[in-house]
Design brief:
The complex is a heterodimer of chains A (114) and B (110).
Chain A lengths: L4 E3 L2 E4 L5 E6 L6 E7 L6 E7 L2 E4 L8 E4 L6 E5 L8 E8 L8 E2 L3 E5 L1
Parallel strand pairs in A: 2-11
Antiparallel strand pairs in A: 1-3, 3-8, 4-5, 4-9, 5-6, 7-8, 9-10, 9-11
Chain B lengths: L3 E3 L4 E4 L4 E7 L6 E7 L6 E7 L2 E5 L2 E6 L4 E6 L8 E8 L5 E3 L3 E6 L1
Parallel strand pairs in B: 2-11
Antiparallel strand pairs in B: 1-3, 3-8, 4-5, 4-9, 6-7, 7-8, 9-10, 9-11
The chains are: A mainly beta (114), B mainly beta (110).
């Protein structure tokens, strides 16, 4: 079974630039999560999708972050414009059904904002 | 006060030692408790999960939950160099939103 795929693995941008990350969850997984993991901290949930609908985006900085999950499969997370404090690893995870505790994580995208 | 507190370490032990990793929490509604292992430059991988209180064992790993003390533990017996990683605890009240600890960095020295 293929795991959660994320790209790119690394991205370096300057502040005020835009960036987008892509996630392909495990086939058949209805729930998709985006997390931000700052160095030395645990993952923080940014947004959760159930199929193509948003379940929870309470911690998403909506003035600069946006996410979509068209057709309930792949998802993209965008930052526009980026700030220095956005430097982090962005992790995508998926689970079979909402409320199921086994989340499978991708390797993440490491973002450096200079 | 943070939802979940975890000592970041780093923790360094000799091969074969018993390792104890711990988290405390403040939200008494939490009932799903998980431990993830994260190798460098990789995503977290689920190791153990427990519902409510009690113990759960899987090979060399044992997870314990004490809801009365709001305290969870992960024990690793006969630790191996391959156990060197960051260990994250995570908790949820409903099974939807998860709260992660900061992670404990573990090094097992051959």
């Amino acid at each position: 079974e293929a795991g959660v795929a994320q790209s790119p693995r690394y991205k370096i941008i300057e502040k005020r630039q835009s960036v987008a990350f892509w996630c392909n969850p495990i086939s058949g997984h209805a729930t998709l999560y985006w997390y931000q993991q700052i160095l030395g901290q645990g993952p923080k949930l940014l947004i959760q999708f159930q199929n193509n609908g948003v379940v929870d985006d309470s911690q998403l900085p909506k003035d600069r972050f946006s996410a979509e999950r068209l057709k309930g499969v792949d998802s993209t997370l965008k930052i526009q414009p980026a700030k220095l404090e956005d430097s982090a690893v962005y992790l995508c995870a998926s689970s079979l059904i909402q409320g199921q505790n086994i989340q499978y994580f991708g390797a993440g995208t490491r973002l450096s904002v200079l | 006060q943070k939802e979940v507190e975890q000592d970041p370490g780093p923790l360094s032990v000799p091969e074969g030692a018993i390792v104890s990793l711990n988290c405390t929490y403040s939200n008494s509604a939490f009932q799903y408790f998980m431990w993830y292992r994260q190798y460098s430059r990789k995503g977290p991988e689920l190791l153990m999960y427990t519902y409510s209180s009690g113990n759960k064992e899987d090979g060399r790993f044992t997870a314990q939950v004490d809801k009365s003390s709001k305290y969870i533990s992960l024990f690793i017996r006969d630790s191996q160099p391959s156990d060197s990683a960051t260990y994250l605890c995570a908790m949820s009240a409903s099974g939807n939103q998860f709260y992660f600890g900061t992670g404990t960095s573990l090094t097992v020295i051959p």
